[in-house]
Amino acid sequence: MTEERPPADQLQRLAAAAKGDRTSIRPPPRDLGQVAIHIAKDGSWFYRGTPISRASLVRLFASVLRRESDGSYWLVTPAERGRITVEDAPFLAVELAVRNAGSADQCVTFRTNLDEIVTADAAHPIRVVIAPETREPRPYLRIRDGLEARLTRPVFYELVEFGTEEQVGGMSRFGVWSKESFFPLGDLR
Q1: What's the pTM?
Q2: Are 160 and 153 in contact (CB under 8 A)?
Q3: Tell me: the pLDDT tens digits for 22-77?
Q4: At a CB cut-off of 8 Å and minimum separation 6, what does 42 contact?
Q5: Measured between alpha carbons, how far is 158 from 152 in angstroms, rounded to an integer?
Q6: In terms of Cα–Cα distance, which of 156, 183, 175, 153 is closest to 41?
């Protein structure tokens, strides 16, 4: 019978493993099951209900964050993997920059709450979900490997200023162009 490590050690072990060598051949990571890390809707990270205040530690964990095909979120290091809880999206898009506004080669770039820079394009699409309870739009940007950032309300309002009307599938749609891809933001009625 093997002895399980106490849950209090999970945070330290995940951080240490995340800094490890990712290039050597290793056996599959050991599954820790549910880890007491939670990402709130506002982008704050918590461990056992306590905010993780060190930005460098949050960035480290974000660098090993993965999303499975079933929608679950995992911190995956070469040695271990642990499932975490995410309320909405693991990141927030907090800043927007537009190059060549209004031209055919318009380029829309976002900065996340963890300072990742991502340009909307075919590999990093913008999608908008309508919240069933409020009918308000919830816009998201794919960051990497199924991970998304939810656009904050001010960023979404700024993005809408660069929108245009286009015919998509026989319908008039309002959206934005970036890197030669059109991203619908809503229907025009």
Answers
A1: 0.80
A2: no
A3: 555 567 888 888 999 999 999 999 999 999 999 999 999 999 999 999 999 999 98
A4: 92
A5: 10
A6: 153
Domains and CATH numbers, the chain: 7-86 (3.10.540.10), 91-187 (2.30.270.10)
What is the per-residue burial (b if ≥16 Cβ within 10 Å, else e) of 67-76? beeeeebbbb
Select from 173, 176, 134 the least CA-distant residue to 155: 176
Q: Which long-range contacts (CB under 8 A, 24 or more apart) does 180-184 make?
A: 180/104, 180/105, 180/121, 181/120, 181/121, 181/122, 181/125, 183/120, 183/125, 183/126, 183/127, 184/128
Q: Which of the residue ranges 76-80, 100-104, 151-155 has the most confident prediction, judged by mean pLDDT?
A: 151-155
Is residue 159 helix, strand or coil?
A: helix
Retrieve residue 144's tokens.
């990497």
